Amino acid sequence: MDQGIFFGLNKLSLQIVISLSMLFCPFWMTEAAVAEEKQNQDIHLEEIIVTAERSEKELRTGDVDVEETPSDVVVIEREAFEGKMETVSDVIEKEAGIQVRQTGGLGSFSSVSLRGSSSDQVMVFMDGILLNDASGGGVDLSTISLGEVESIEVYKGSAPINFGASSIGGVINIKTRRAEKRFSANAGVGYGSFNTRSAKGFINHKPGKFDYLVSADALASDNDFEVLNDNGTPLNPDDDRVESRNNAQFGQFTLLGKAGYDFTHRSRLDFMTQWFSKDQGIPSWNNSAETETSLATDRSINTLKYTHDSLGDLPVNSSVQFNYSRKEELYDDSEGHIGLGYQKSAYQTDRYGGSLFGEWMASWHTVTSTLDLTREGYEAEDQLNDETTNSSSRDTVSLGLQDQLYMLEDSLLVVPALRYTYVKSDMTTQGESWGDPEQHSEDSQDYWTPQLGVRWAPRAWFTAKSNIGNYVRQPHFYELSGDRGLLIGNPDLEAEEGVNFDLGFTVSTQPHSKWLPHLGFNATYFQSDINNLIVIVYDSRGIGRAENVEGAEIKGIEAGLNADLGRYFRMVFNATYQDTNNLNPNPAFYGNQLPGRWRQKYLARLEARYWQLKLWTEYQLKGDMYYDTTNLLKAENQKILDAGLSWMWDPFLLSLSVKNIQDNRYEDFNGFPMPGRSFFTSLSYTY
Question: Which of 77, 388, 433, 628 has the greatest count of CB atoms below 10 A from its CB?
C-alpha cells in the first residue's frame, strides 16, 4: 500500500487523539436535563419494509442509533420477512453492495461479502456477541434462523465503536426478538419443494417488571433437486446425465430464551440463551449415491447483561455484559468420499467474554467508550487416530473511544473514533497426518485503528455521508495451522491491514402527488486498499496453502431507487458495480479480479398491495465473476426471477413464493450446483 496512505492515517490517528482529549474537558460540564430530553424523545416513522432509520421499538443502552451515525448502514426490519420461508442470506442479498454465495440449496454453507471483501473480513454479531471464531472460515449464515430475528443491521465498511471488533468488510449485526409490554404468541408451518418442512413458535409476556420470551424454529429439507452431472469431463457432453442431488439433506433446530427484570425505570437485568443444532450431508464432487459424509454442528450462546442509565444526576448510561459460547462440530468422512484419505474430526470452540459500555450524552456531543475482553480456546481431534491435531487459544483486549459532535444546529455530525486492540495467540499443532512434527508457536500483536465519519443534512430531504478508517484482520487458526487435510498451515502469515473510504448521499422526498407520494434515491462511492492480503494458493493436487500477497484495491459504486407509485404500487431498484484488483506482483495474478466476487449486481422489485393482499415479483442479475485467482474459470452470469404473494386474514398470514421461475442452473462455487425452480408456502397464526 502507498506509504502516503499510512502516513495520512497516522496523522489522522494523532488528530483524533488530540480532538478527543480536548473534548473530554468540556463534556463534564454539560447539563443533565438536556441529555435526558434527547434520550427519551419519541420518533415516529412511516412504515416501510427496509429502512436506515430507527424504528419505534425501544432503543436500549449499547444499541446503535442508526439515525445518529455517519456509517453507511442498512436496517432490515422483521416486517420484510415475517411469515416467509426465507433465510438470512435471502434477505440481505437483496441490498446493494452485499453478495452471498452458497454451496447448494437451502441450509447449505452461505458466506457473505460486503463491498468486495472476503467472508473472513466480515464481522457478524448476534445481540452484540461476535460469531466469528478464531478457527476461521467466515460465519456460515445458514446457522442463523430468521424465526428469532427482530432486525438485521448491515454496516458496510465503517462501523460504530459500539462493536468491540470491526474489519475490512464491515459488520452485520443480528438483533434477536425482545419482550414487549403485552402478551403475544404466534405459530407457523411451511412446506416446499424437495420435501422442505418448517415449523416455528413464539411466546412473549411482560406482566410487570419481569418479562420473558421463548422462540423455537425447526427447518429441514431433502435438497434432492435435479443437477447436471458431467462426471468430471466438462469437455465431453456424451457422458453427462441429469440426476437428483445426493446426500445434501439437512435438519436444524433453534431455541431462543430470554428473561429480564426492571429494577427501576433506569436499571435492568437481562439473560439470554440460544441453542442451535444442525445435521447435514456433504455431497461428493461426482454426486455419488454412496456418499455418507456429514457435518454436525451444535452451538450455544449465553449472556448476562446489567444496564444502568442516568447515574445519579449525571447523563451517563452504562452496561456490563458477560457471555459464554460453545461450538462443537463433527466432520465425518470416514469413507474418504470428499477429502484426501479417511477423516473423522471433531472441533470444539469455547469463548468467554466480558464487556463494558458507557456513554455521556451532552447537549452538543456524545462520548462513547467500550472495553471488550475475550478468551477463546480451540481444539481439533482426529477421532480415527485418537489424537489432538490442534490445541490453540487466543486472548483479545479491545478498547474503543468515540465522540459524536453536533454542529451547525445539528445539521452536521462529525464522529472521530479510535480502537486499540491487543491479540495474543498460542498454538500447538500435530501434523503427523501430513508428515509434519508437532509445532508450538506464540505470537502477540497490538493495533491502533482510527476512523472518522461525517454526516451532513442541510435539508430534511438530503443527507450526505463520508467515512475513512483503518482496519486489521488477524489470520485465523485454519490459515495458520491447516484444516481437514485440504489446507496446509502457514504460521508465518501476517495480519491483513486495510483502509476503507466511502462517500455518498441520500435523497428522500414526499412530492405530495397522488401518483408519486414517495421517492428516494441514494448513491455511494467506496474504496478499500488492502495490504498483506491473505489468499489460498493451490498446488496440482488441489492442496491449498494460505499466503500473504502484496494486496488488493477495491473500488465501486452502489445506487438505489425506491418509489411509491400511487396508492397500490411500490418499485425498488438497486445496483452495484465494483472492481476488485489483485495486486499480487506475480504476472499470472496481477490486475486480475479477486475470485468469488461479482463485478456487477442488479435487482429490480415491483410490489402491488390491495387491502390485505400483496403481490411481488423480483429480478436479479449478477455478472462477471471468476472462481480462481488466475481468472481462467469464469462463472456463468446469473439471471433469477422470483415471485410471490402474501395474504393477511387476521389473525392468519398466508405466503406463497416461487423461486428461479425460469429454472436456470447456476453454481456460486465451482462444482457445487444450486437448485432450479422451487415452490414454498407457509401459514402463520398470531394471538
Answer: 77
Q: Which backbone phi and psi does 556 adopt, to 5 degrees? A: -170, 175
Which residue, chain included where needed, has cell 412446506?
191
Q: Which phi and psi angles does 117 have, rounded to 5°?
A: -75, 170
Give the model's pLDDT for residue 34: 35
Of residues 324, 277, 322, 317, the one with CA closest to residue 296: 277
- Residue by residue, DSSP assigns 38-52 as HHT--------SEES
Extended strands (E) in 29-183? 50-51, 73-77, 98-102, 110-114, 122-126, 129-130, 149-156, 170-176
How far apart, in whole angstroms, are the C-alpha atoms of residue 621 and residue 400?
A: 40
**Which of these, 627, 599, 496, lies nearest to 99 by C-alpha position?**
599
Strands 250-262 and 241-244: unpaired
User: At a CB cut-off of 8 Å and minimum separation 6, what does 252 contact?
Assistant: 107, 142, 143, 145, 218, 219, 220, 276, 277, 278, 279, 280
* 298/289 Cα distance (integer angstroms): 26
Cα 428 off chain centre by: 30
Regions in the chain scoring below 70 on pLDDT: 1-57, 339-340, 430-437, 483-486, 538-543
**Rounded CA separation 579/627 (Å):** 15
Count of structural domains within the chain: 1
Three-class secondary structure of residue 493 per DSSP:
coil
**Structural domain boundaries enclosing 428:** 3-686
- Tell me the one-letter amino acid at 333: D
CA-based nearest residue to 138, from 107, 163, 157, 117: 117
For residue 99, what are the β-bridge partners? 113
What pLDDT score does 254 carry?
A: 97
